[in-house]
Design a protein that fits this description.
Length: 222
């Protein structure tokens, strides 16, 4: 066996070893996070579930892309206004480049709250200039007629009339106060999400936002 072959074998072994180490570290980290979130939930009298397959399925309309969809570290709380759910949502997208499938794992922290009324899907998300242009050209970006709001957000909906009805000045003003927060209503739930994994402080902030948003949305329809 010549020196070049030995060198290649050593490189392959090293890459495999690094992959194993990274995987073990990731598993230990995930286990540590799960334990911490479970303890946080217990301290508040909330329930903890390591994984919820049904919740992952329910998030499909808001996150239609990707595979290997998982709702992890699911925390549920019963409040005076209904159930609140906090979870880590993960999904994998595949991009084909140079004859190689490149996988990317997306991690999103989601918080859902009972709305108390049934609504078709309406999604409001911060949007960059390119995204706004594409949305307007394709007709997917609904214009509300409020220049500050239309500039800041991309709005998609199953029913444009419903979107315009619920996006009252109060709702738009609240959205602008929390300008980097994405949110959506569908059925009897309202939800918000952000990139990355949940932590207690962010969860509390998201729950407070949804409480305000729910009040504004219900008022918009009465």
């Amino acid at each position: 066996m010549d020196a070049t072959t030995v060198f290649v074998i050593l490189i392959v072994v090293a890459v495999v070893a690094i992959g194993v180490v990274v995987g073990v570290i990731g598993m230990r980290r995930d286990k540590g996070r799960s334990s911490a979130i479970a303890a946080w939930a217990q301290s508040r009298g909330w329930t903890y579930q390591q994984e919820d397959h049904e919740l992952a399925r329910q998030l499909l309309p808001v996150f239609p892309k990707g595979e290997q969809r998982r709702a992890l570290n699911v925390v549920r709380a019963r409040t005076a206004s209904g159930e609140v759910v906090v979870a880590d949502f993960r999904y994998v997208t595949v991009k084909f480049e140079e004859d190689v499938n490149q996988e990317k794992t997306h991690r999103v922290s989601v918080v859902l709250r009972d709305l108390g009324i049934d609504l078709p899907q309406v999604t409001v998300a911060p949007q960059g200039a390119v995204g706004r242009l594409v949305g307007r050209v394709t007709g997917r970006d609904i214009q509300i007629g409020d220049s500050a709001f239309d500039k800041a957000f991309n709005v998609t909906a199953a029913d444009h009339a419903v979107a315009r009805a619920i996006l009252t000045p109060a709702v738009r003003g609240l959205a602008l106060q929390h300008g980097q927060r994405s949110w959506s209503v569908q059925g009897r739930r309202v939800m918000t999400w952000s990139e990355g994994e949940q932590n207690p402080q962010q969860a509390d902030e998201a729950i407070a936002f949804l409480d305000q948003l729910s009040t504004a949305l219900v008022s918009a329809l009465h």
